[in-house]
Specification:
189 residues; mainly alpha; two-stranded parallel ribbon; globular
């Protein structure tokens, strides 16, 4: 069964280009972060998109627009399994904030603490938590930060209600990948 909706990849590619150019539309898109102000972003985000994904696309687009200093990571195109996971990017954020980050689950840093909380949050609260993480990284990181925004858009689109097995799997993925990446950073100390 085919639909007439565009993939969010096209939307994200356009928004990344507009963000790079410093387009004034980014101010409207940033307002999609909240149900109270999201209507300002409708014209820039929703045309041609699946109505079932509207809330997630508004929130993900707002995060992208609000955090221009977190760049789109250039991923290898050869194989899908070589892509850097979102969890690994969050582990890199921890290291950017603290070169001595230990990734000890008994003493989580600010990134790990927020990733633990995000599992139980609805889409709007999860978006605000991600916004806080990205703001912290932009303010205090010791080097440039990178993220695969395409993967983040996909995660938020599949965020769900936190009750179904598939929704819980998506929500836990960030924290699981964060700790899976920890050995890589422990070796770099």
């Amino acid at each position: 069964m085919s639909n007439n909706y565009n993939s969010y990849y096209g939307l994200l590619s356009r928004l990344l280009a507009e963000r790079e150019k410093g387009s004034s539309s980014m101010a409207r898109v940033r307002r999609g972060i909240s149900p109270n102000t999201e209507s300002y972003a409708f014209a820039d985000v929703l045309p041609g998109q699946d109505p079932h994904n509207q809330q997630a696309l508004l929130r993900a687009s707002a995060l992208l627009a609000a955090h221009p200093h977190i760049a789109q990571i250039v991923q290898p195109e050869a194989e899908e399994n070589t892509r850097r996971s979102l969890g690994r990017s969050f582990a890199e954020f921890s290291r950017l904030l603290d070169a001595e980050a230990t990734f000890d689950p008994n003493s989580p840093d600010s990134i790990a603490t927020r990733l633990q909380q995000i599992v139980n949050q609805d889409l709007d609260d999860a978006t605000l938590t991600l916004h806080r993480i990205f703001s912290l990284v932009e303010q205090k990181a010791s080097a440039p930060a990178f993220l695969d925004w395409y993967l983040l858009f996909g995660v938020l689109i599949h965020w769900g209600n936190g009750v179904s097995e598939s929704s819980l799997k998506v929500r836990k993925k960030l924290l699981r990948q964060y700790y899976e990446a920890a050995p890589f950073f422990e070796l770099k100390k």
